[in-house]
UniProtKB/TrEMBL annotation:
Transmembrane segments: none annotated. Belongs to the class-III pyridine nucleotide-disulfide oxidoreductase family. It comes from Fructobacillus tropaeoli. The keyword Oxidoreductase applies. Its cofactor is FAD. The keyword Ion transport does not apply. This is NAD(FAD)-dependent dehydrogenase. InterPro entries: FAD-bd_OxRdtase, FAD/NAD-bd_sf, FAD/NAD-binding_dom, FAD/NAD-linked_Rdtase_dimer_sf, Pyr_nucl-diS_OxRdtase_dimer. GO terms for molecular function: oxidoreductase activity. Residues 1-304 form the FAD/NAD(P)-binding domain.
Length: 446
């Protein structure tokens, strides 16, 4: 079996490794246009903020480590064109310029995503930076150490983390977003308002509900114009979001309108013996019970593994995702899974929610701290479709608990009576996950 894997971020790396582990005799070729594999891009803001022990540890595999596993690594090699039906790739060595054509038994598309870069006048200025790749990270690390004033465009997780890390390192930060709240797509208003105040307390200028219309170089930096004003800084950083990097395969395979390649529960595309995974592919989103596009490393890893499990024949089905994620800003941890009431409405799910706040462990302890917890459920079925937690205490595993509940179709009633331990060092007699579920039951019963 001769397999081509196109791209080697998370999905490509895990697909190649799993194929080779399950099929030692398979001939696995990985084609990567860059010089690195497995870059943990989620650490870019942390590196800029001097919170990374070693840049070497921002990669969990190298081309050499993968080659030692029997995988043929073709670095700085671009797949220029693909005929998916014929399983043929046109390949270019970016160092030598040599071009070739090669045919495979199976093709795995793990081309990932590309940063959204709208066609706005001046956006190609060398004072406007992207924040996705290893090259982007190096450029940002170098320039942010030299400048004082920075505009961050996009207040999702990427922009939010960049703005926070820059602000705590004495930079003058302006955070611009087209929506009227920070982390609007990730949080409910009662959570985003907490972060909004934290930004303001740390001197970040918030320019929300504003659409960028232009960039203009100035004598000492960049001017960003929106539909409501102008802002000047030394540089601007884009953190708007991502789209599937799949243009090469358009009209050859079924896709969503945004270019995400449709896959079934075995990671198979509409073309026989062609698989897709990660940011280039759809996921099955358990809260809505529908296919969706949710570019997260966790989704990419699991889908990559499943490609390996199913490369020869359908063997292991995808269990879906809850899009569980977390962020830490200004020493406050926020973790969520599934939908908020606002995102549920956008996706056609009629939902309700409840939010509570209580200390995570008994007050007789020498220290404790509050946890704000929210639970979202589908009206009628009472099926849990989302949850969120905010605290200075580490509440990340609470989101994982509810993620498991959503995956298994649990109701608020079932979660309210689920057995969680009590020990004063760790929690209350009624754990805050149980408490918010009980509050949900009480509200749903009114």
């Amino acid at each position: 079996m001769k397999v081509a894997v196109i791209g080697s971020t998370h999905a490509g790396v895990f697909a190649a490794k799993q194929i080779k582990a399950d099929h030692p005799d398979a001939e696995v070729h990985v084609f990567e246009k860059n010089q690195t594999v497995s870059f943990l891009s989620c650490g870019i803001a942390l590196w800029i903020g001097d919170n990374v022990s070693s840049t070497d540890k921002m990669f969990y595999e190298t081309p050499d480590s993968m080659a030692k596993q029997g995988i043929s690594m073709h670095m700085q090699t671009l797949v220029e064109a693909a005929d998916l039906e014929a399983k043929t790739l046109n390949i270019k060595d970016l160092v030598s310029g040599a071009q070739s054509e090669e045919t495979f038994d199976k093709i795995v598309i793990t081309t990932g995503s590309r940063a959204i870069k709208p066609r706005i006048p001046g956006i190609d200025s060398d004072k406007v930076f992207d924040s996705k790749t290893w090259d982007n990270a190096n450029a940002l690390k170098e320039v942010t150490e030299k400048v004082k004033r920075i505009i961050v465009i996009g207040a999702g997780y990427i922009g939010a983390e960049l703005a926070e890390q820059l602000s705590v390192n004495d930079k003058e930060v302006t955070l611009i977003d087209g929506l009227d709240r920070v982390l609007s797509n990730n949080t409910a208003p009662e959570f985003s308002s907490v972060f909004q105040k934290a930004y303001e307390d740390h001197g970040v200028k918030l320019a929300l509900g504003q659409m960028v219309s232009g960039f203009e170089d100035t004598a000492d930096g960049i001017k960003v114009t929106t539909d409501k004003g102008t802002y000047e800084a030394d540089i601007a950083i884009l953190g708007i979001g991502f789209l599937p990097n799949t243009a090469m395969f358009r009209d050859q395979v079924d896709m969503l309108p945004n270019g995400a390649i449709k896959v079934n529960k075995f990671m198979e595309t509409s073309v026989k013996d062609v698989f897709a995974a990660g940011d280039s592919a759809t996921v099955f989103y358990n809260p809505t019970q529908k296919d969706d596009y949710i570019p997260l490393a966790t989704n990419a890893v699991r889908q990559g593994i499943l490609v390996g499990k199913n490369i020869a024949e359908p063997t292991m089905a995808y269990q879906g995702t809850q899009a569980t994620s977390a962020v830490e800003l200004y020493e406050m941890a926020y973790a969520s899974t599934g939908l908020t009431v606002q995102s549920a409405a956008r996706k056609g799910v009629e939902a309700d929610s409840v939010t509570i706040s209580e200390d995570y462990r008994p007050d007789f302890m020498l220290s404790t701290t509050p946890v704000k917890a929210s639970l979202t459920w589908e009206k009628g079925t009472r099926r849990i479709v989302g949850a969120a937690f905010l605290s200075k205490h580490d509440i990340s595993q609470a989101a994982n608990v509810v993620s498991l509940a959503i995956e298994n179709g649990m109701t608020i009633d079932q979660l309210s009576m689920t057995d969680f331990f009590f020990q004063p060092n760790f929690g209350q007699p009624v754990n805050y996950v149980s408490s918010v579920a009980m509050a949900a039951v009480a509200k749903a019963n009114k």
